[in-house]
Design brief:
- Helix content is 28%, strand content 20%.
- By secondary structure, the chain is of the alpha/beta class.
- The strands form 3 sheets. It has a 7-stranded mixed beta sheet with strand order 14-13-15-16-12-17-18, with helices on both faces. Strands 5-6-7-8-9-10 form a 6-stranded mixed beta sheet, with no helix packed on it. The protein has a 5-stranded mixed beta sheet with strand order 4-3-2-1-11.
- The radius of gyration is 25 Å and the shape is elongated.
- The model has no long low-confidence stretch (mean pLDDT 90).
Length: 400
C-alpha cells in the first residue's frame, strides 16, 4: 500500500494567509505546506483540499483513478470545488466500515473532538491510521493485538493522541508516525524536527510517496536527557513536552510541599495543571531507587532541589562539617546518582538549573552551592545521550 501526502499542513495551510508570525515568515520552500490530504494507492482520497489535483500531478499521480473521497473534518478554509470525475466527498459514520472494489477496507474511528479518523487496511494487509487535526481517538480502553504500520496524526497539536495509541498498543516500536496538519505553533526546520523526534515521529515534505510497512528511519527517543536552563527559561515545559506523547509517565518532584508557603504551592499547582492527567506524581529526593526500577518514563524536576536536600543532609553549609566529611559525603551521593543514571533501563528526562553564568554569590555557602550544582550538572550530563540548554524558551542542543 502506497500513500502520497498531497499536503501536510493545517487546514489553512502553512504559512497562513496574511499571518505576520515568525513561523509563517520562515515557512518557505520545502517548509511550506498545503492543507493535509492523502492519496492511497491512487484509489482512495482522504480529505479534499484546494489544489488537490495539481498537488497530485506535481507528485507524479492523477486523481483519475480515485474511487472514494472521505472527509475527516469540516473544512474551514476556502470553498473547495470537486474536480470533474471525482466522486462526491462523504464522511463515514463512526464505527462504519467500507470495502472498496480495489480491496481496501476503511473503518471510521470516533474522535474525542470534531471530525472522523480512518483506519485503512490495504489489499496487502498493511494498516494505516489517519486522524483529523486536533483530534484523538475516543474509547480506546483495551490493548489491541496488532499495531498500525503507519499513523498520520496531529503530533504537534495533540501529542496525547499518540500517548493513547501507545497505551493500547496501536503504536508500537515499528510504527512509522508521521506528523500532519502542521501549523505555525512550532517554527519549521530544526525546531520542528527536534520536537517530533522527541515524540518518536517525523515529518516529510508535501508530495512525498511512502510505502506503508517499509522500514523508515524513525527517530529514536533519547533514553536519557538532561534539560538545563535559568529561571523561567522554559526548561520544565520543554522537559514535559518531551514525554507528553507517552502514557504512564512518572513525574518525580524533588521540591516537596513546603507547608505554609503559598507562593510555592501556587507554583506546584501550575505544574500539576500543565501535566497530562495520566501521569503519576511522586514527591521524593530518593532518586537512586527510582532510576534503578523498571517502569515507564520518568521525569525528574529538578536536580537543583535534590542537591539542596543532599547538602542539607551532609551539613554542607557549615565550614567545619564540610571539611570534616560533608564534602566527601556529597561526592559519594553524586557518584551514586550518576551511577544510577548510567545503569537506568527506563527513559529518563531530568531538569536542572544553570546558575554558573550569573552574578557571583555574595556568600561562601552560595558560592559552594553554585560550584556543586555545576559539578552535578556536568556529571549527570556525561551519562545522557542528549543535553539541552533552554534560553528564552528556545532549546539549544548541546549533545545528541
Amino acid at each position: 500500500m502506497e500513500v502520497t501526502l498531497l499536503g501536510t499542513g493545517a487546514p489553512a495551510g502553512l504559512p497562513r494567509p496574511d499571518c505576520p508570525c515568525a513561523a509563517c515568515a520562515t515557512a518557505l520552500g520545502p517548509d511550506a505546506r498545503a492543507a493535509t490530504a492523502l492519496l492511497v494507492d491512487g484509489a482512495l482520497l482522504l480529505d479534499l483540499t484546494p489544489g488537490a489535483a495539481f498537488a497530485a500531478a506535481r507528485a507524479g499521480h492523477s486523481l483519475g483513478g480515485v474511487r472514494q473521497v472521505l472527509l475527516s473534518h469540516p473544512h474551514d478554509g476556502p470553498p473547495v470545488e470537486v474536480p470533474a470525475g471525482l466522486p462526491q466527498p462523504v464522511r463515514v459514520p463512526d464505527g462504519r466500515e467500507l470495502t472498496l472494489l480495489t480491496g481496501h477496507r476503511v473503518r471510521a474511528v470516533a474522535m474525542d473532538a470534531g471530525g472522523t479518523g480512518y483506519a485503512v487496511t490495504g489489499p496487502d494487509g498493511r494498516r494505516l491510521l489517519y486522524l483529523p487535526p486536533g483530534g484523538a481517538p475516543a474509547g480506546l480502553e483495551t490493548a489491541t493485538a496488532e499495531s498500525y504500520d503507519m499513523v498520520l496524526a496531529d503530533a504537534v497539536g495533540r501529542p496525547d493522541a499518540l500517548a493513547r495509541l501507545r497505551a493500547v498498543g496501536s503504536v508500537g516500536p515499528t510504527t512509522d508516525v508521521l506528523a500532519v496538519h502542521l501549523d505555525h505553533d512550532v517554527p519549521p526546520g530544526g525546531e520542528l524536527w527536534r520536537r517530533l523526534a522527541a515524540a518518536g515521529a517525523r515529518a516529510v515534505p508535501d508530495g512525498t510517496t511512502l510505502v506503508v510497512g517499509a522500514y523508515e528511519d524513525v527517530p529514536d527517543v533519547p533514553r536519557r536527557t538532561l534539560v538545563l536552563g535559568g529561571a523561567r527559561s522554559g526548561k520544565s515545559v520543554e522537559a514535559e513536552r518531551r514525554l507528553e506523547s507517552f502514557p504512564d509517565v512518572l513525574y518525580v518532584a524533588t521540591g516537596g510541599t513546603r507547608g505554609g508557603d503559598t507562593e510555592w504551592a501556587a507554583r506546584v499547582a501550575a505544574h500539576r495543571e500543565r501535566r497530562p492527567g495520566s501521569w503519576r506524581t511522586s514527591e521524593t529526593t530518593d532518586l537512586v531507587p527510582v532510576l534503578a526500577a523498571d517502569g515507564p518514563p520518568v521525569l525528574i524536576d529538578c536536580l537543583s532541589l535534590w542537591l539542596t536536600d543532599v547538602m542539607d543532609e551532609v551539613g554542607a553549609w557549615d565550614d567545619a562539617e564540610w571539611a570534616g566529611g560533608g564534602e566527601k559525603a556529597l561526592r559519594e551521593r553524586v557518584r551514586e546518582l550518576t551511577e544510577a543514571v548510567r545503569c537506568a533501563r527506563r527513559t529518563v528526562v531530568a531538569v536542572s538549573n544553570e546558575v554558573g553564568s550569573g552574578i557571583v554569590p555574595a556568600t561562601a555557602s552560595g558560592r559552594r552551592y553554585r560550584d556543586e550544582l555545576g559539578r552535578l550538572n556536568a556529571a549527570f550530563a556525561s551519562e545522557c545521550e542528549q543535553v539541552l540548554l533552554i534560553v528564552a524558551g528556545q532549546a539549544v542542543v548541546l549533545r545528541g
